[in-house]
Membrane lipoprotein (Cupriavidus yeoncheonensis), 102 residues
Amino acid sequence: MIDIHSGDIVAAALAASGACLLCAIPLEFLRRFPLWAVRTYGRGALLLPFLAMTVGTWLFRLTLAGQLDSPAGNAMVVAAAFLTTVLMSALLRFYLSDYRKR
């Protein structure tokens, strides 16, 4: 028998709202953001996508191995949360400073 818990409902709602948010971003915003990030943060901004891909890959592998509750898994979750926070703050800064002016 399949049990549906409240955590499952919350996770599904968060996934749906994230997908809606991602689809609602205008394409022009996504075209101009990388150039603005390099202008604002310098060449170090180019390393963030590679670091995010590396952390995401490790997190995915740990999840498939069933070791998400291990210390390494916890570290990858924290690293992914930190990188997400940095990216969201950069997107918000771009939106508030440069994108709305045009």
Q: What stands out?
A: DSSP finds four helices and no strands in the chain. The chain has a mean pLDDT of 85. The CA atoms of residues 62 and 72 lie 8 Å apart. Residues 27-101 form one domain.
